[in-house]
Amino acid sequence: MKIKIAAFGVIGVLMNYSMSVLAEPIGQFSGHADIGAVKHAGSVIYESIEQKYKINSSGKNMWVGEDQLHYIYNQMSGDFIVSAQIAFEGEGADPHRKMGWDVRTSLDTASPNVHAAVHGDGMASLQFREKAGGDTDHYPLQIKAPDIIQLERRGDVYIFSAAKKGEPFQVTSVSHIKLGEKVYVGLTLCAHNPDVVETAIFSNVRITIPAAKNFKPYKDYIGSNLEILDLNTGNSRIVFRSPDSIQAPNWTLDGKSLIYNSKGLLFNFDIASGKSTTINTGMAISNNNDHVLSWDGKQIGISSHVADDNNYSTIYTLPIKGSSKPVQISATGAGHSYLHGFSPDDKKVIFTGQRNNEFNIFTIDLKTKKETQLTTSPGLDDGSEYSPDGKYIYFNSNRTGLMQLWRMLADGSKQEQLTFDDHNNWFPHVSPDGKKLVFLSFMTDIDPNEHPFYRHVYLREMFVDGGAAKIIAYIYGGQGTINVPSWSPDGSKIAFVSNTQF
Length: 502
Hints:
Elements: E1 14-16, E2 31-35, E3 43-47, E4 52-57, E5 62-63, E6 66-67, E7 69-77, E8 80-89, E9 98-104, E10 113-119, E11 123-129, E12 136-144, E13 148-154, E14 157-163, E15 170-174, E16 182-190, E17 198-208, E18 223-230, E19 236-242, E20 247-251, E21 257-262, E22 265-270, E23 275-279, E24 292-293, E25 299-306, E26 312-319, E27 327-328, E28 337-342, E29 348-355, E30 358-365, E31 371-373, E32 381-386, E33 392-397, E34 404-409, E35 416-417, E36 424-430, E37 436-442, E38 455-463, E39 470-477, E40 493-500
Antiparallel strand pairs: 1-3, 2-7, 3-4, 4-17, 5-6, 7-16, 8-13, 8-17, 9-10, 9-16, 10-11, 11-12, 13-14, 14-15, 18-19, 18-40, 20-21, 21-22, 22-23, 24-25, 25-26, 26-27, 28-29, 29-30, 30-31, 32-33, 33-34, 34-35, 36-37, 37-38, 38-39
């Protein structure tokens, strides 16, 4: 299923269209219109730098047998996931004004629909009308005034997820509403008062076509969004889109580029121009998503599979601008070696090594090529990374059941668990000031040994000593989303990858 999606602009433009007719594409949407006999024409403003939508709308209600609202939409078929951060502007005239995601069979006022709605008084509910002109019913959530909403279709099941930003989703669903294969899907606003015009702001808007149910991991891939999350504002911008699988962005020391892998090669993405160029890695052309930059920004370490060595992942280093002759670091025949970081003095690299049928954390001295094993506990130890002062190494381990975050001193001693929750937590990345961790959290429906592609995941943040973690992004992604250190040099942003079919 294909959706026409307009490219995101680099330069901010405000666009205001007449709402009485269908319009040209706006951001990710193909058109917009007033639904029903509204007294005051609605409008949409798209701010392309922040990738935000401001909807203005009148309308007496979205309930019983008819709706009045403003609607910004696409036509879609098959399964999908749509999500957004939402906010009303101002106090509003009526506590039952509504905003949210709406799936409709048509643009008619009486259309059957499923509506993931948040009201002005904070009520969140999954509303639905089974037949044209029929009554509307709803399943309310217990959460009050969520600002993150997601609506997912899986066949004829519609799943509404809502959260206060930073907290996990609460979920409800409906499965008896049959809207047909091809539907309208979009953002809505209804004033619940025909005489006034209300305003709502929608940010972090994502329209996702998930992987097919029968996709084969590491053989079948879907497209990718390269995103930059501003940690101060919570707003995430898509800066690059690809129909291919791109993975694991590193931020260069000058803050100007992101380095990612795709189809076995490495690429440098220039943020200002929006263009990618291939990095020469010589004979290393089966690179995976375990690539890292040295602390001085001059070198890049890579993990590349070697066909002549049992297809083992092998560690190399090369200059940041590329080289036809990368330097091999891990030994031939040693087993898989998945790189995760340089020591702050750039004299060692740290990695997950498969040795004697176990995966543990090792370092290699870059000068002598000597390996030192740091962990020995049964289970999988992975995702290791030094603190900026070199005192600690942070990593993830499933030695106590679920995958959780740990840390140890740089010599491997005093290993201590940092997270104890009901998620599978991977890849702790330390902020440049050494105070916080950002990491990837899978739900408990996965094997703690795995970090698969194409799942609902959270990016979370916590202090390095442990404690409560808060969600900073709600993502469809997983493997390749944030495997490598992804903080901007000033610590104000995070780069990551989300996924969707194109």
